[in-house]
Amino acid sequence: MAKHTSLLVACGLGLAACSGATGQPAAPRTAAEPPPQAPTAVAFSAARPEVPATPAWTNEEAHRLVTAAVACWLGGVWSDAEGVPDTKRVDDAERRCRQLVQAAYGTDDQARYEQLRAVDPVEIAELKNKVLAVAEVDTVDHARAQQLGMLLDAVANTERESMLARRAGDRVKKDVEGEREPLKLTADEVAAVAPLNDARAFEALLALDVGELSPEAKGVAILYAMDHMQTAKGLTKHLKVYALARPFAVLFSAPTPQVPTDSREPLVNGTWLTYITSVAAAAGHPVLPAAKAATDREMLAWGGAMEGLADKLRDEAQHMSGETPLKRVSEAVVRRIDAEYRGSEAAVLQQSGRKRALPVRSSPNG
Question: With the CA atoms of 35, 38, 41 and 42 taken in that order, what torsion angle do they form, in degrees rounded to the nearest 10?
Answer without folding.
Answer: 20
